[in-house]
């Protein structure tokens, strides 16, 4: 599954909130998407012949037909079974099961995944460029790495799980569990919002990382000289006051203790014994609390800001609600093709400019926009009141004119008998 479902068809992509300048309407193109976003239906239109296009839709577009949905469901089930088998093989109690059983299960799964991989390669072989893009895509590489260790075992005639370099390849098959979630709108948007939160917090995080490195270097050096003890020429090591080998025999060893302390992990395998060493450790305990709190606050604030902006711009208009009709193949993992929304861009240009601004500046700009909107509403109300006033004056003039005519007519009737 090399091509991802476009998030623009399911709501506004949070990538639009990465604009760094208010005057740059296309600043969203400066930041690459976390996930490749190509419209499967649009790509399928350019695929020829027809059978290859049908194969492409069958494998890449679960809502194109009932058969495509069934294949998607079956592939997802195979991925879950494959991950379960990989995990169960490592349980000690499962070692009593014959190896031929595990080999048979793995062979069956690998054959099915191989057929799927070949079918997807054929479906993407409309041109050599599209085939190459599929081969080097994230899911294409994961699919290949998932079946490659099995064929290496067959070629080498031995179990590759005993070799560390092949064991790493075998673990890649577990990454296939991420494939079904490419159709889940919430998960994809959450991943992108997390990515953008890191992007927007990069300066604060870099400053914090620099501070951590400085603390690590300074305090590990202080602890090394405070806890290293005396050098024993016979043993060739540092000895502490109790006659035991020093646990702070080098600055890297002391740096490990500092890192474990400031991250509040506290393994306890290395502890300072002298009063001076424990006194130096006290500031590390306080700094550890700040190290956990500050990134959590910064990332949490930025995540909330991007998420709120995305949700605010995601509210569909009445015409969009009428145009959206759920398909019969309702599934939380499947995108509804009728959920296209194409009228976000008017408001998102302003939101994109605001998203990268500090919170105070963003609030001030929002207040200015609110005041401008209120002023516009007051102006409109004043125009309406003036129009109504003109209408009332005309009515009064009309009534006054009719009253004068009646008065003249009445006076004429009163004066006629005397004449």
What this model shows, in words?
The protein has 419 residues and is an all-alpha fold. It has a domain at 372-408. 64% of the residues lie in helices and 1% in strands. It is built from 14 helices and 2 strands. It has helices at residues 40-45, 50-60, 66-88, 99-123, 128-136, 138-156, 164-171, 185-200, 202-227, 251-262, 275-314, 318-323, 345-355, 359-415, and strands at 230-232, 237-239. A two-stranded antiparallel ribbon has the order 1-2. Strand 1 (230-232) and strand 2 form a beta hairpin. Helix 11 (275-314) packs antiparallel against helix 13 (345-355). It is flat. The relative contact order is 0.10. Residues 1-29 are annotated as: Disordered. This is Ion transporter.
Structure at a glance:
By secondary structure, the chain is mostly helical. The protein is built from 14 helices and 2 strands, in the order H-H-H-H-H-H-H-H-H-E-E-H-H-H-H-H.
Strand order of the largest sheet: 1-2
**Number of DSSP helical runs:** 14
CA gyration radius, whole angstroms: 36 Å
Task: Give me the secondary-structure category.
Answer: mainly alpha
Strand content: under 5%
Categorize the overall geometry: flat
Q: How many E-type strands?
A: 2
Determine the N-to-C terminus distance: 108 Å
Helix content: 55-70%
As residue ranges, the low-confidence spans are 1-38, 317-349
The succession of helices and strands, N to C, reads: HHHHHHHHHEEHHHHH
Overall pLDDT: 74
Main sheet properties: 2 strands, antiparallel
């Amino acid at each position: 599954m090399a091509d991802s479902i476009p998030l623009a068809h399911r709501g506004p992509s949070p990538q639009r909130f990465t604009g760094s300048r208010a005057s740059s309407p296309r600043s969203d193109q400066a930041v690459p998407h976390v996930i490749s976003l190509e419209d499967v239906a649009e790509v399928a239109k350019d695929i020829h012949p027809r059978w290859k296009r049908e194969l492409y839709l069958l494998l890449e577009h679960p809502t194109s037909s009932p058969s495509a949905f069934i294949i998607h469901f079956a592939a997802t089930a195979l991925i879950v079974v494959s991950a379960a088998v990989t995990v169960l093989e490592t349980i000690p109690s499962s070692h009593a099961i014959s190896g031929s059983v595990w080999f048979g299960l793995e062979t069956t799964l690998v054959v099915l995944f191989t057929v799927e991989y070949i079918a997807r390669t054929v479906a993407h072989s409309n041109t050599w460029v599209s085939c190459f893009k599929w081969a080097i895509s994230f899911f294409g590489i994961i699919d290949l790495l998932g079946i490659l260790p099995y064929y290496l075992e067959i070629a080498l005639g031995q179990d590759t799980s005993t070799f560390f370099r092949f064991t790493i390849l075998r673990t890649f098959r577990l990454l296939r569990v991420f494939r079904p979630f490419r159709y889940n709108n919430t998960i994809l948007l959450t991943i992108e919002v997390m990515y953008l939160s890191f992007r927007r917090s990069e300066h604060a995080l870099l400053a914090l990382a620099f501070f951590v490195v400085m603390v690590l270097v300074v305090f590990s050096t202080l602890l090394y000289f405070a806890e290293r003890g005396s050098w024993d020429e016979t043993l060739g090591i540092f000895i502490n006051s109790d006659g035991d080998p020093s646990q702070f025999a080098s600055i890297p060893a002391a740096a490990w203790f500092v890192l474990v302390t400031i991250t509040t992990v506290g393994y306890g395998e290395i502890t300072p014994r002298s009063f001076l060493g424990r006194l130096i450790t006290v500031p590390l305990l306080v700094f550890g609390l700040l190290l956990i709190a500050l990134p959590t606050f910064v990332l949490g604030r930025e995540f909330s800001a991007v998420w709120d902006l995305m949700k605010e711009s995601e509210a569909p208009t009445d015409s969009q609600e009428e145009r959206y009709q759920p398909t019969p193949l309702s599934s939380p993992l499947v995108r509804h093709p009728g959920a296209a929304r194409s009228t976000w861009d008017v408001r998102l240009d302003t939101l994109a400019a605001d998203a990268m601004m500090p919170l105070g500046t963003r609030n001030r700009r929002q207040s200015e926009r609110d005041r401008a909107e209120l002023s516009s509403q007051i102006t409109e109300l004043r125009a309406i009141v003036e129009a109504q006033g003109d209408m009332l004056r005309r009515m009064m003039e009309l009534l006054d004119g009719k009253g004068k005519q009646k008065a003249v007519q009445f006076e004429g009737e009163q004066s006629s008998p005397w004449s």
